[in-house]
């Protein structure tokens, strides 16, 4: 680790927080319907859709509207992927995707996961990339943000009957937040050297006289929303490690900024909506602490290098450079790794399969902690609030009152729903991983023996269920079993979590908002932040510790003992 | 770890029905009950312990099978044994908690004898009655109770006045007066008429009397889980499911590149991870919380009410008798110019020599205390001029002079003089401060004023400060005018007051506070308190009060001491804190168990994971066994804490949280590392591992 490396990390994170503060206020204004820049366009959309944006929806109505939108998005994307061979903007003449892969990919982009069992430049037509995947990048991001706003509103007052209007939230978030930001960041990416063209791939003759196909495409703007919406699905197979998708250290830094700025801003937006910004700051502090800690471990582990390589005489100054791009360096790789998994983005600028065991443990564990650090756009906030309710419930009893958060009592119904939501992740991740490890048809996808092989499988389901989408690598993912089960894992990880979470929102909204006093459990200061961090760490750790012990932890100690498989 | 026992200080002082925490007969009975409670049909109500029992059965069968097949079985039997002990310790904890209540119920039941009632044939004729078994009485029957009779059932006095010994319900043997009308008209079945007679209208159906309810309550019969308990149960069940998933999937995970651990080992892992500590103690905590209230001589109609007490934000307290001593006392002498304070004090004392009212006594006492004036005995030649409602003046004629005291205007009028401006000023100042002025005269000359104050009970200010730190607002309710009320409120240190309060005012105040999202508690005794008692979230009715008040409240104080509302709140808080603390402790414990068990169960596949064995436990078997044993023993170790409750300190929520997180969170992290290591050392020492 170097001072310069830490300076890079500090600079990027400072830029994230600095931008999140005004953005939070802007999102709060959008949520309240105070932004009317594009009012005529908005009105036209509402008229066309027969929508009354002022009509409030209860939690069921809001959830159903969201589910209907997502189902429609899934069906359209599935059809597009299957039929892309017949459709225009396909200069390379790619055929339609197989039913399994199309299902997996459609689910993946609808659930904001962006797990990719395909390689973009070898499978996707420009139309699929632009009208299918990019559109879903916007819609799934807006879906997450809208749901988070609904939950925020539940805390904003007492005896509320509705959580807002899904359609209005959905339209406004796209128009006023995601689109403007994506245009700005997309232009920056073009300036930094990313292609944005509909021209066909270029055939080049190399110095050695061989021919090379250089893939192109409308990449820059898709990459912008890929990060801003914490989607993470790369335009090219190598994702942000590809020279066209991550052309420079500056580009990769801007990507790191992009996939964190909205999740962090939303936490502060929450503070604005509940009219107590300190609440938002406390959550932000917890998230930031985990991101920094995760970055530190990856940085230390990777910069420290592989003990076997060092023993073989590799220069220790470089650290473990396998699978990493020299133009990024260890610090930006570590920060990208911790943030892309912490923020449920899933883009990668290095290959995790080549990391040291501890370096690979961090992204895996950050996903298993529930994708709340800071998590995906919207999903991070609502996931974090579910953890907050549990932390408040357990520890809040210790102040001698029925636990309450922001004046809302946390009672049996909320605890039940929160536990239902929290159960999804361990059930899906551990369940599918265990079955896939003993099922020969599934286990044959694994490339490596020993604990590293277990990590490859565990990582895939953790990534899918956490709606992250990053791949550890080393897993042949495009098989019917993995396409189907990972698709199911993504669906459950997204919607089996959302439904109980929205039920909590409905239940809390209707409750009276109790006045705070000195007897109320304080949920801002460092004490609560520490408690929340402890709960997330212990709850996540307790669930996944046995699995991790058999994977990266075992690999770490085995490697230290000089053993390989 | 700090396991300070927390018996409310007042409990000891009051000396009410305080049984020893654990006595031999209770323990013996509890041991038997603990076995009876192993019935899975009963245990299923407690998901954590139910899962433990199912796992214990499974391991028992497996170890039996191993023994039959001649495989190594001692380790398996060891695990099975400790799993059973884990279940037993939990049922034992519940049985002990119930046992303490049962002992009290039995002493109560003895008083509910097969009383015979004198059923009046005609309501207006006391002479005409026929005997009837108490159990055959109907609501609305009129019965006669004479000296020496047990009151057959709960009722309302419709005629007569009598002294009644209520020791059976209150434990207080001094008889109390019961009479028709007014606020002392309720009588309780099982109490004894000591003198005179009463005609009662029966108000409770057989089996539904106050005593019956009390017995059911202390026995914990038909105990409903409280809302918080239900929520906590769900959390614990959810965590149990999570750990079931984590452990069950280990079979698949561990078979990758190795052999999965055996079922007994996985069972041990599961049981040590699921929150058995809090799961095993949860119902004992609830029963003990209720029991603490009963031993404090307060009966709650439900556990829900006890929990609500912990949540209270606003306390409505009556001024008289609760905040102040209830009678005015001398608190100052203010002489007019030209008169010394000592002269005034002397005159005041002499004017009060024959005054037997508490005010009069207090003037003598104050003169002695402040001015060192020893009041002489009433001299032989003294002529007493008694207080009358007409004159509002009293006094004494002595050879040394004629001494008078009384309301300032009355005295001035009698003397035919205008009070001097200095006196007028002093009087106004006293009235503004919420006190009552009395003028003193000697031989027709006004000497000055006595300040009579409503004296705030000692220590009330500190208690209100403590309540404020807990985030609870105290509101004083009084019939006094605003000026007086404001002054006393300021002196007592309450946050707010309702002056010239009518029952409607109280009700309106409660409704307003509730609309602002606050929970309100109040104490009351009169029939006109009933609506407010019913509206309040916690209504503490006095045992001496009316039947209407007792029905409206959700708690009854057998000592009829409204100040106890404060302790009731503390007991409610203590109950919740105990649950939260043990839950936190239970979850924090799991970290150490992973460090003990994970390296042990994967030792065969990855011996390198031994690096995680930070406790340096002797062998995989001893590590697993030590964790299981610790997990079982910690339940027993925490039974006293569960029964007594975690110490409650009246500080703000933030400080309380910091303190409890440190003790139970951090303590919960560290304690098992130490405990498991010690057990492991012991196992090695005994050659068991």
UniProtKB/TrEMBL annotation, chain A:
Keywords: Cell membrane, Ion transport, Membrane, Potassium, Potassium transport, Transmembrane, Transmembrane helix, Transport. GO terms for molecular function: P-type potassium transmembrane transporter activity; potassium ion binding. Its main location: membrane. GO terms for cellular component: plasma membrane. It is found in: Cell membrane. The chain crosses the membrane at residues 62-81, 93-110, 130-152, 173-194, 256-275, 282-301, 381-399, 420-443, 484-506, 527-549. It is a multi-pass membrane protein. InterPro entries: KdpA. Pfam families: KdpA (PF03814). Part of the high-affinity ATP-driven potassium transport (or Kdp) system, which catalyzes the hydrolysis of ATP coupled with the electrogenic transport of potassium into the cytoplasm. This subunit binds the extracellular potassium ions and delivers the ions to the membrane domain of KdpB through an intramembrane tunnel. Belongs to the KdpA family. The system is composed of three essential subunits: KdpA, KdpB and KdpC. This is Potassium-transporting ATPase potassium-binding subunit. It comes from Dankookia rubra. The lineage of its organism: Bacteria, Pseudomonadati, Pseudomonadota, Alphaproteobacteria, Acetobacterales.
